[in-house]
Amino acid sequence: KELVSDMRLLAVAVACIHHLDFEQILESYEFGEAELVGLLARLDRLKLIELKPNNLIRPLVSRAFTWLPQGPIQTFFYAQAQADFFRSRFDAPGEALVFASGRLSRAQASRLAERLKRVVQEFRETHLEDLHLPLESRPPMSVLVAMREWEFGALRALQRRSPLKARRG
Question: Which letter does DSSP use for residue 21 in this model?
């Protein structure tokens, strides 16, 4: 709750999770040194980072963390960030928006969901592999993978309320 109640704290938390160091955060955001130290101290108290001497930052969040279902960060994303994320044509280099629709058994859907989780893990690993590169050559990138049982409401409204029974001739 504290993270999403203060956008400056959230920005620093995201920077720390992305392994930016103190100087890189100062270069990236409109914080003075004293304010940044204060924000880092708050993250340290929240046990999201360990703030070490000389303002060294050690993230304590697991690389495989996920949002709590219906938790404050997920709720914040749905309410404020989701529309911002999708306000794009996804046609720039390195961007993609892929949509597919079909009918899958629950077993196949479960297998596919596991493979999608592996894609997200690959994204996380790639992020770590690029940490040695200069910050300016690593723009912030986000991946959203979603899959659910869903049919567009306008199409669902056209469906019969009960299936037709086979006619016998």
Answer: -
Tokens at residue 58, please? 């050690």
Q: Report, in angstroms and rounded to the nearest whole number, the Rg of the chain calculated over CA atoms.
A: 21
Q: Which residues pair with 57 in a beta bridge?
A: 51
Rounded CA gap, 138 and 126, in Å? 11
| Residue 57: how many other CB atoms lie within 10 Å | 21
Q: Where are the alpha helices (DSSP H) in 29-134?
A: 33-45, 72-76, 82-85, 106-129
Coil, helix or strand for 50?
Answer: strand
Q: Which of 8, 24, 21 is nearest to 49 (CA)?
A: 21
Count of beta carbons in the 10 Å neighbourhood of residue 60: 14
In sequence order, the 6+-apart residues with CB closer than 8 A to the CB of 56 are 21, 22
Q: What is the pLDDT along the chain (169 residues), one digit of tens a residue?
A: 999 999 999 999 999 999 999 999 999 999 999 999 999 999 999 999 999 999 999 999 987 788 889 999 999 988 888 889 999 999 999 999 999 999 999 999 999 999 999 999 999 999 999 999 999 999 999 999 888 888 888 887 887 876 665 554 4
CA-to-CA separations, 106 to 102, 110, 111, 151, in angstroms, rounded: 12, 6, 9, 16
